[in-house]
From TrEMBL:
Organism: Mucuna pruriens
Domain (Reverse transcriptase) ranges: 181-272
Gene3D superfamilies documented for this protein: 3.30.70.270, HIV Type 1 Reverse Transcriptase, subunit A, domain 1
Protein name per UniProt: Reverse transcriptase domain-containing protein
PANTHER family for this protein: RNA-DIRECTED DNA POLYMERASE, ZINC KNUCKLE (CCHC-TYPE) FAMILY PROTEIN
Length: 381
């Protein structure tokens, strides 16, 4: 490549308005640059004008469309009248409440909140304590196997308990596994398998009413109400110093209860009246006690002023006591027992209604023979 020198005189530089860059050894032609800038400005001006015309045209189309829609809507417009009435409570068991009950529920609306307030329950003069049998080894059970979905559900419910201050993280040497139990509505309820700790817990001898006596008290009653408490067990605090005995574990951590949990041993409403007026008085007293003790009802599971109600597996009405058809169905559809343990399970369920079966002991005698020690299990049709 040949390199040569070009001499540019001052008249050329003056005519072209050229600028010399000594560092780059270059000249810039200001006339050309000015011409290009002017051309660019003209292009931008034209684009801006076209954009403005398009926007104006779109705006006109939009206004025309809105006018057409408004006219069409006006032609088809109909007069709609909205009728409403105040509905404060609904209940899937008994949707039509007497007016006395409806006004009473309005008065105690705070007793039936959608969500239970967070925080520990108030001191009630009673705390749940766990006294262990001396010299017994402290249980430390492994967690149960769960799939990914079950693991997430357990941790989700544990996080909710942490937010409510019902549990806290623990360093306890004692632990039992958490487990999911299916509910009737298809959801899950996290429970704690406390069987290991219950085995070494001192059992308290509280006087508990017999079921027969409780059913006898319902005699001549005509109006029944059933109130379900939200997290009833969690409304009693644990005794200070006993929290570590309630520890349970998940796959991620160890926690202990600050309130009484469902499943612990020693962890112990239905009421009735003869007339509606008397029943409303009783209901007022019960709801007032719940309010004073900051206990909360689950309205969806409550039933008010019914002529019959399922109570502890029996159907109670003004006509007396009868069996619950759901339990009878379970007895009829029970699969054929394959060993002595399954026979015991069936016998226990069937014995629940023995008061309604004449000569029940004689009928169930063959079952009793099958569960005896050293008897070979053989089920004959």
């Amino acid at each position: 490549m040949h390199v040569g020198h070009l001499l540019l005189g001052r008249p050329w530089q003056f005519d072209r308005n050229a600028t010399h860059d000594g560092y780059k050894i270059a000249y810039s032609d200001q006339i050309r640059i000015s011409r290009e800038c002017k051309l660019r400005e003209e292009q931008l001006s034209i684009q801006k004008k076209v954009r403005k015309e398009n926007m104006s045209e779109n705006k006109q189309k939009k206004e025309k469309y809105e006018i057409e829609c408004s006219e069409e809507k006006r032609e088809k417009e109909k007069l709609l009248v909205l009728l409403y009435k105040d509905v404060y409570f609904t209940n899937e068991f008994h949707p039509s409440f007497p007016c006395e009950v409806d006004s009473l529920l309005q008065e105690f609306i705070d007793v039936f909140p959608d969500e239970v307030p967070h925080g520990l329950p108030p001191l009630r003069g009673i705390k749940h304590q766990v006294d262990l049998i001396s010299s017994c080894p402290i249980p430390n059970r492994p967690t149960y196997r769960t799939n990914l979905e079950e693991t997430k559900e357990i941790q989700k419910q544990v996080n909710e308990l942490l937010q409510k201050d019902f549990v806290m993280e623990s360093l306890s040497p004692c632990s039992v596994p958490a487990i999911l139990v299916p509910k009737k509505d298809g959801t899950w309820n996290m429970c704690v398998d406390s069987r290991a700790i219950n085995k070494i817990t001192v059992k308290y001898k509280y006087p508990i009413l017999r079921l027969d006596d409780m059913l006898d008290e319902l005699f001549c009653s005509c109006v029944f109400t059933k109130i379900d408490l939200k997290s009833g067990y969690n409304k009693i605090r644990m005794k200070e110093g006993d929290e570590w005995k309630t520890a349970f574990k998940t796959k991620y951590s160890l926690y202990e209860w600050l309130v009484m949990s469902f499943g612990l041993t020693n962890a112990p409403s239905t009421f009735m009246s003869k007339t509606l007026d008397k029943h409303v008085e009783h209901l007022h007293v019960v709801l007032n006690v719940l309010r004073e003790n900051k206990l909360y009802g689950n309205l969806k599971k409550c039933s008010f002023c019914l002529e019959s109600v399922v109570f502890l597996g029996f159907v109670v009405s003004s006509k007396g006591i009868s069996v619950d058809e759901e339990k009878v169905k379970a007895i009829r559809e029970w699969p054929t027992p394959k060993n002595a343990n399954e026979v015991r399970s069936f016998h226990g369920l069937a014995s629940f209604y023995r008061r309604f079966v004449k000569n029940f002991s004689s009928i169930a005698a063959p079952l009793n023979e099958l569960v005896k020690k050293d008897v070979v299990f053989k089920w004959d049709d």
